[in-house]
Amino acid sequence: MLKRQNPSAPERSRDLAAHGGALPMSHNDSRSFFNLSQLVLSAGQIKQSPALKHSKITYFEVEIVDVQSKKQICIVDKVPPASTILDVKHKFHKTCPQWYPSRVGLQLERNGPFLKDSISIQSLAVSSIVTLYFTDLGQQVGWTTFFLTEYTGPLLIYLLFYVRLSTIYDQVESRKNFRHPVVHLACFCHCLHYIRHLLETLFVHKFSEGHTPLKNMIKGCVFYWGFTSWIAYYINHPRYTPPSFGHKQVSYAALAFLMCEAGNHFINVALAHQTNSEGNRTCFPSPTYNPFTWLFLLVSCPNYTYEAGSWISFTVMTQTLPGISSKSQAVPCLCHGPGVWLFVCVAHQRLHFTQFFPERTFENTFIFPSCSTGL
């Protein structure tokens, strides 16, 4: 039996070509085609180059105009819609370095209020060009610097009078007259009061990043430093006479002073933590187990009430006319400076914590600062 021989590869190729068949691909060719197919499939759709995309962001131009002369100062261009007034101030500072951001006041209208730093440009724009009026607010200082300067001065000034410098008092008379113990106690209470203020400024109070004009700090320093000099001069004078009722008057007044200082501290701590139990919302401070916070049931700002109580106790303890006069002079001063601040605090509390105020009385600074006088 004859065995059939398989045709060789060249003979099969010739036979297929003779019958019109397609030649099969070699193994290497088919492998290359398979790899190319896999590459095309894995690549997917060809993405458009980012450089070819057109940006849809609309930029604003902010025109800065002087509020007095109405002359254009500069134009801040390419301001994104999400930018705020503070961002515009920083860009304006780069163009005009003499006006740093805290010194710049921007208004939408000439007689309008100053715009807050958190306001966005997009909320003010009615077209692609926004016109803002510029006002130079003068030299500014931070709130921390403001209070540290005010409180450091009285602390040092009182100590200068306490050591009885030769430029202030007669040295012969200073050596001859004996210092009454209330003089040392008064120095201790006065230093304690302002050291507490300094520590609370650094570690308790929460100040915003805002600023205040330098002239306001100068006014505050004149008030605090001037009255401190007046009080300290008479209390530390070699001819100073002790209180009329002696040790009993000094003891009770000193105890009242220390209680008011403690109450003032606890109230400031409560005001610095005005958050609810969840810790995400500001709430009005309420009385706690601490007896010093129970004054919230009667007045809106007990810290001012305790402050007034401290100085009344200090005046009774030392029995000095300047102490009484300085506090009586403080009442009209409060109407122009700290009194306005007190009214702002109470107005803010009435706006945000309306449900609490029917139970509390207002603090009338024109009669007696921070007492429960009512309206």
Automatic annotation (TrEMBL):
It holds the Pfam family Steroid_dh. Gene3D superfamilies: Phosphatidylinositol 3-kinase Catalytic Subunit, Chain A, domain 1. One of its GO terms (biological process) is very long-chain fatty acid biosynthetic process. Its main location: endoplasmic reticulum. Residues 212-324 form the 3-oxo-5-alpha-steroid 4-dehydrogenase C-terminal domain. Residues 60-136 form the TECR-like N-terminal domain. One of its GO terms (cellular component) is membrane. It is a multi-pass membrane protein. It comes from the Eukaryota. One of its GO terms (molecular function) is oxidoreductase activity, acting on the CH-CH group of donors. Residues 1-22 are annotated as: Disordered. Keywords: Endoplasmic reticulum, Membrane, Oxidoreductase, Transmembrane, Transmembrane helix. It is found in: Endoplasmic reticulum; Membrane. Signal peptide: none annotated. Belongs to the steroid 5-alpha reductase family. This is Trans-2,3-enoyl-CoA reductase-like. It comes from Ficedula albicollis.
